[in-house]
Amino acid sequence: YYDVANDFHLCSKLGLNLGKRFFLGGDYYTAGPYNFHEPLNNTEWNTKMIGGGIGVDYNVIGFWIGYYPFDKNEDSLSGGIIKGSAIKGEFGLKISKNIRANLGLIFHNLNEIEYNGTTIPIEGYAAESANVSISAPIDF
Q: Of the residues 5, 38, 49, 113, which has the fewest C-beta atoms closer than 10 A?
């Protein structure tokens, strides 16, 4: 099945330069609501992820790969929360001095569902998402 993002995502990275090209960073990502048209109808999903990774910046293009041990997806219809971890890869293209256009791919590995205070482990549940964004990197 497919999912369609019908709203927004925000991401904040705080990093440390490791020379001219490489950087390490922490990342907070929040997105949603998402409307999954199949098989769930009329539900909104809110995603929150916290993790870290490494990036490389080649002036015109940049890359980021991150691991997110905290990946939480909340369903507004049932009140259920699906949790796990994720890996995110991102490609950025510099379009002006302080603006980048980015394409991100997120691979979610979800291993538990929380509903009405009860947590149930699940196996083999994975999801992928893609996003397009504009970022404004700030260097100190």
A: 38
